[in-house]
Amino acid sequence: MADEQKKGFDPANKDDVKVLQGKLNEFNALRNSTQEPLDITGEMDKATRAAWLEFKKETFADGSLSIGYLKDKKGLNFSEKELEALGVSPDALGDKPKNPESYDRNEPPKELITAVQKKLGVEQTGKLNEDTRAAIKDHKRKNWIDGRINAGALNRLDEEIKSLKAAKEVNMTGVTRSSGSATVSIPMDVSSSKRVMG
Q1: 73-111: per-residue pLDDT in tens?
Q2: Residue 79: CB partners within 8 Å, gap ≥ 6?
Q3: Is residue 8 part of a domain?
Q4: Residues 38 and 79 in one domain
Q5: How many structural domains does the chain have?
Q6: 94 lies in which domain range?
Q7: Taking all residues of the chain, what is their mean pLDDT, rounded to a whole number?
Q8: Is 147 helix (H, G, I), strand (E, B) or coil?
């Protein structure tokens, strides 16, 4: 899909839509999804739009907090002033943040977590616990994720496919080892989890 991202995805372009439909089918097959494969028609039909939206919900609706989600009107709709008062760095705010920090890896300020919990109607513990993450994920799925097709989401589809293929390859071959520029795989009998020597 690299070519599509350079020129931009055009839902009226049958070739662009066919590539998207093929990628969505590949993604769902690699995940062993029960979703029916899309017909590769080149039409941005209801089934294609539904599959795209489901992909976005599966991959973008997680239990993490990002500045975009915190500020977005469909997200938690905090103002910059509110976020600053809750301990979010001013460098992370604005239209072009100097440091667009995300709290995916770092613990957000306790005051911010408590405010998020209050907005989501969960117990206000000040900790980003399982219940809070589940509430964030549910809120994102219901309110924040939309069916827009953009370069970032198309790149994410490619990344997810690549990751799923790599995981499947490791599961099928057993152990993957790298030695310099050569990679050596030791085959395994997956049904019995025993290495196959040969």
Answers
A1: 999 999 989 998 998 876 666 655 555 555 545 678 899
A2: 71
A3: yes
A4: no
A5: 2
A6: 67-144
A7: 80
A8: coil
